[in-house]
Amino acid sequence: MNVKLQGLLNAADWIEATYGTEELESILDACSPTVAERYRERIAINWHPKSEFVELLDQAERRLGTGDGKVAAEIGAAGARKNLSGSVARALFYVARPQFLMRRVAGLWSRFNDEGTMEVPLFDNDGHLQMEVKGVPDPHVLFCATITGWCREFATRFRAHHPVVEHVECRARGDARCLWDARWDGFEAR
């Protein structure tokens, strides 16, 4: 599976902004030369193997975290903030119904991943959403953790009160599917 380089670049930018240039360079030095070279190319629209993104996540977890995926989740959230920060995105978040918006964003999966799909099998107005990623070969816990952070940030962006996102089923942990469960306490008034 290939992913857009934008994810790796967003991850590196978050590491540098949060922990400094020396820490980022240390993480890149611990990665294969291919990963470091991809970062230095900085062509966000290029495709590269998902395994390279996971390699960067793994090194970041080793150096900055405890291996529980929290660093990867923060990287996913930072990527969502960066990708959703434009004026058009802000306007869309303001006027669109959350259910429509979530289904639309899930449909954009193929712009950033060349295999698999993201689906929203459940969205109710009482503050509950389920999201499923299907068809990703070689699932990885850290890749899934970035999606957890991304979902949490997305919920925050569409003005959900106190969003909690959990990756309740994970193929990388032996489950039959990758499923996220998100809950919140209503929406801010617009």
Computed over alpha carbons, the radius of gyration is 16 Å
User: In which range does the helix fraction lie?
Assistant: 40-55%
Total domains, how many? 2
Output the strand order for the largest sheet: 3-4-6-5
Question: Per CATH, what is the topology of the largest domain?
Answer: Threonyl-tRNA Synthetase, Chain A, domain 2
Question: Which blocks of ≥5 consecutive residues have pLDDT under 50?
Answer: 87-95
Supply the helix-strand structural class.
alpha+beta
CA-based shape: globular
Tally of helical segments: 9
What features would you describe in this structure?
The chain has helices at 6-19, 21-30, 33-41, 50-64, 70-83, 87-95, 98-106, 109-112, 141-157, and strands at 2-4, 47-49, 117-124, 128-134, 164-169, 178-183. The protein folds into two domains: 2-78; 97-183, 2-Layer Sandwich (Threonyl-tRNA Synthetase, Chain A, domain 2). A four-stranded antiparallel β-sheet has the order 3-4-6-5, with helices on one face. It has a two-stranded antiparallel ribbon with strand order 1-2. The protein has 190 residues and is an alpha+beta fold. It is globular. Helix 2 packs across helix 4 (50-64) and helix 4 (50-64) packs across helix 5.
